[in-house]
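One chain given next:
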Amino acid sequence: MRRMVAETRLHPADLILPAFVREGISEPVPIQAMPGVVQHTRDTLRKAAVEAREAGVAGIMLFGVPEDAKKDALGTAGTDPDGILQVAIRDVRAEVGDELVIMSDLCLDEYTDHGHCGVLAEDGRVDNDATLERYAEMAQVQADAGVHVVGPSGMMDGQIGVIRDALDTIGKEDVSILAYTAKYSSAFYGPFREAVGSSLQGDRKTYQQDSANVRESLRELALDLEEGADMVMVKPAGPYLDILAKVAESVAVPVAAYQISGEYAMVEAAAEKGWIDREKAIAESLLGIKRAGASMILTYWATEVAQGLGAGR
């Protein structure tokens, strides 16, 4: 009876799997702060993509992890057609074609030696306009590699419009943009920085949003839509369900939410201690995100949960 009248339901097609691919490794590298998640080799990434597709997951969001020696001040590995992310996009596209929506992280932080999401000015601040030029080039090489959706996560002013123009200029009008509209400066990103081998010293508070603010996110939402965003995102998900609900109520485009590394790690750590029921906690957290208005959820449990849903659990 409870199942029959449930108002909110999860479906495999609601889920997107974030995945990391690392250059120069022959075996997957476990991420210590995220039990069960690894930095993939190119081969194991292809297998993970197939597994996700077979489980009914809607998409995969790819993050590249270059060799440290290839990081520099401009993040040039991120715009190299033969850089690890572009190679991974081609690999996954060759493996699953259009049967899985292939998304890519469009940001410089994985590729810069300073770990920031953009180009730094002489005074150490992120140069917004110089960064936009790099994002435009990055969007074009990712599109040429075969990505379906780019996800600009750097939170630079005007990034959506610049990326849309850059894609249209090379005839890639069909490549969609998932705007990281409300990306808050959060303590819950910690494990992710291990996952991408971040070189960051300090924080990103000058260009990510303040957790105390709501109206700021709604202003960003209006700007992103005006500039041509096809989809919008709230990140993190769990601590910002109120923002997610406001965004979902305000727009007619699809709304994504990213259940980030710290949210994942907390559940896994508590479950390992025997303090919570792991499967129930995962399901409850995802239902809460869906109930708040997300039409797509990026979660590291995507394939596992989709397999469970397919088995009728």
Q: What stands out?
A: The longest strand covers residues 15-22. Residues 80 and 141 are 7 Å apart (CA to CA). The chain has a mean pLDDT of 91. Residues 128-145 form the longest helix (18 residues).
